[in-house]
Design goal:
Elements: H1 22-37, H2 44-51, H3 55-61, H4 65-89, H5 95-112, H6 114-122, H7 129-153, H8 159-173, H9 185-201, H10 204-208
Helix pairs in contact: 1-2, 1-4, 1-6, 4-5, 4-7, 5-7, 5-9, 7-8, 8-9
Length: about 210
């Protein structure tokens, strides 16, 4: 069965004061279960039971687990790309400011949505080829937002070298599913931002010293 990408309510976008749809609530439950147990460790019955929804009502919202996973992951990649581009646009002719804004944006997202980050890290390959390719395409475009900013700020870097630093920084910032609850969110955000900027702003001489 083909899985189409649904760009409706997702765990990544919440509007203050707006009542969430039942579909979005079910998707939140599914994301939490997938992140905790793994995609293959969760059945539609598990999701329905946790969400308090019967089988027919559940299938009214989603055709199956693949549709839920696609609905969770695709809009997240869209939001990251749009948000990253918007942060850069707020700092014309200021690549240093743009880089700080990108780091702050991604760290805030990763801390707010650790379950979605876990799905991206571990479950993306469960999707059929078409939605998986679309998500990968969006991810590559998001990476290039960072690469363009880095190479503008640091002419010592080639685009390929900037991609290495960008991916290394994503690995650091996307560690939020594994962070200790003993450190509060504001402190975690500060530590992640500082570490990410240290990676991105270090020169070859610094790393070899």
């Amino acid at each position: 069965m083909a899985v189409t990408v649904d760009q409706g309510d997702t765990p990544a976008v919440r509007v203050p004061g707006r009542r969430r749809s039942r579909r979005a609530e079910i998707l939140d439950v599914a994301v939490g279960l997938f992140a905790a147990r793994g995609y293959y460790g969760v059945s539609m019955d598990d999701i329905g039971a946790a969400a308090g929804v019967t089988g027919p009502a559940l299938y009214h919202h989603f055709a199956g687990k693949e549709a839920m996973l696609a609905a969770a992951l695709y809009p997240v990649s869209e939001d990251l790309l749009a948000g990253g581009a918007a942060r850069v646009a707020e700092h014309p002719a200021d690549p240093a400011g743009a880089l700080v804004a990108l780091v702050e944006f991604h760290v805030d997202f990763a801390l707010a949505h650790p379950a979605v980050i876990a799905l991206h890290l571990h479950e993306l390959d469960r999707l059929p080829e078409q939605p998986r390719r679309e998500i990968r395409r969006l991810q590559r475009r998001y990476v290039e937002v960072w690469v363009d900013t880095l190479t503008t700020l640091r002419p010592d870097l080639t685009p390929a070298e900037a991609r290495v630093l960008a991916h290394a920084t994503f690995g650091l910032m996307n560690s939020t599913p594994f962070l200790s609850v003993e450190v509060d969110r504001s402190r975690s955000a500060g530590l992640l931002r500082a570490a990410a900027l240290a990676v991105l702003q270090s020169t070859t001489a610094d790393t070899l010293a």
